[in-house]
Amino acid sequence: MDSQRELERASRALTEGKFVECAAICGAIVAQDARNALATHLLGLAIKETGDWPQGEQWLRLSVQLEPARAEFHANLANLLRRRKKYRQAEQSYRRALELAPDHRPAQRSLALTLNDLGRAPEAEALCRALIAADEGDPESWVLLGIALASLKRFPESEAAYRRAIALDPDNSVAHHNLGALLSQTQRPDAALAALENAGRLGVDSYELAFNRGRALLETYDLEGAEREFERAAALQPLNIEGQLQLARVRHMRGDPKFARSLARVADANPDNVGLRRLFAEVLWRAGNLEGAEAVLRDLIARGLGTAQVRSTLAAVLQEAGLLKEAEAFAAEAAQAQPADGVIVEILVSILLARGLPEDAMPFIETRRALSPDSQAWLAYEATAARLLDRDRYQYLCDYERFVQVYEVAPATGWSSIEELNAALREALAERHRFRARPLDQTLRNGTQTARSLLADTHPAVKAILGAFMEPIEQYRRSLDVDARHPLYATSRGGMSRFTGAWSVRLHRGGYHVNHFHPEGWLSSAYYVDTPPESDDPQMRQGWIKFGEPRYPAPGTPAERFVQPKPGRLVLFPSYMWHGTTPIHGDTPRLTIAFDVKPD
């Protein structure tokens, strides 16, 4: 056998995508010469491309052992390790390749991606900038820089990097796709769709493209188009949890009674896929099917697949059903197994407080508060525990008379009255409330919520009301008189101009908000665009906002303050305060705008 000629033939077959042929040629060479490193390496690459990643990795590792001084061998092994999400091993292999060939740009680029995968975006950025310094005309390095900057939430810089890559290479499909994803993430759906269209025209046909198109279409209120794209994403990657979740969410909000059918089908076909099965249970729970959710989770536990996350989710379902003692048992098991998981610990703390056991909850709360001192969630739980323990700390955190403030909003410039502005808002928001049901993961019941942040809305009335909120926010900030240890101190001393979210909710007959806090805010709000006539009755208090009652009421923790809703009225309060609403019972919807702000 002429090994050299056969190796050339194998390499040609690999380049042409004839992976089985390449593997057969290399297999024959290795059978005669087990120490032929190049044949071994090509065999690993061919087997990898057939989809057998574990065996491909074995052959690639063997080739590295046979000839450890070849940088491309280490780089190709690292590429497969990264695809298998073995990121730390991939980093090691890339670094070994670069020790052998410091100017190996493909390995440098892939190392930057791997550092980003490992959550080390600053290191990835530094490596990308070094690549660009060496060659400013390399569009791939600009794309990688955009990825690192997006991970760091430096979105304007990330966008500029992607646009620089496109300027250098107008046919760079990855740059167009990533730009579209970024524009969608930053609530510019029209521009996002244009960029994603370019990516599709250039040959991109992937889960990511379909998913990002779905997200952008949702923000333009093309509900049918969004569902179609999320359905395509779920078909391309049936086991992808995020794709299945988004498809179920859109179908639920569109009022589809079989909204979870795709997720149910895939979960049933993969009974040992714990992530999918747990997601299915959580979707059922969020939709109110507690019995169905419990059955799915208990089945996992019975079959030896009861991870800490499974047990914690079951605890939350049982808490919702009022079975607090059993819920505590599962939650405690989960927290013992995963004590560093904040979500798991939060479920246990919520159950302990609902059972009237603040002494047991307080050590967990204190630990989490120390880890995340600005967390609005853990401030909320600390306040509840302090209330149960009759500590002054509760009044310190939740002085409702001081910290819940009510404003009558003045009309923005260009509007003759707040009534005129609210009339324009009613018309504008009617176009944005196109769903038939609530989001699965939000607190409203019997109502709808806008899909796109109002911060990116260009309607003149929406922009005007957001501007009109600034003066009450400043008044609130100036009115605070708290010491430097109080969570609101930064609010009173820093600027308050940074909105972190804004949305609208429309409640229908029987609609209300379950008690909750705002984890992404520091100061939160409720502004009333329209209220039903029954809200005028101070005895019935229908549709009124209430403060102080936890999501799952603990003994002796009723609401302590109620505020009447009126059109043009704005209520401001700390984001950590528990708040909800009483139901409305008439036919007139209750239309509100809410927002969160943080110190700038």
Strand content: 5-15%
CATH level-1 class of the domain at 401-598? Mainly Beta
User: What is the number of E strands?
Assistant: 9
Largest sheet composition = 6 strands, antiparallel
Layout: helices, strands, pairs:
Layout: H1 3-15, H2 19-32, H3 37-49, H4 53-66, H5 71-83, H6 87-100, H7 105-117, H8 121-134, H9 139-151, H10 155-168, H11 173-185, H12 189-201, H13 207-219, H14 223-236, H15 241-253, H16 261-269, H17 274-286, H18 290-302, H19 308-320, H20 324-337, H21 342-354, H22 358-371, H23 376-388, H24 392-397, H25 400-403, E1 405-408, H26 418-432, E2 444-449, H27 460-468, H28 470-479, H29 489-493, E3 498-513, E4 523-530, E5 545-547, E6 561-563, E7 569-574, E8 579-581, E9 590-598
Antiparallel strand pairs: 1-7, 2-3, 3-9, 4-7, 4-9, 5-6, 5-8
Question: How is this structure best described in words?
Answer:
The chain has 600 residues and is an alpha+beta fold. Among the domains are: 1-67, Serine Threonine Protein Phosphatase 5, Tetratricopeptide repeat (Alpha Horseshoe); 77-113, no CATH class; 401-598, q2cbj1_9rhob like domain (Jelly Rolls). It is 59% helix and 10% strand. The protein is built from 29 helices and nine strands. The strands form two sheets. It has a six-stranded antiparallel β-sheet with strand order 1-7-4-9-3-2. The longest helix is centred in the C-terminal third of the chain and has 15 residues, at 418-432. The chain starts with a helix and ends with a strand.
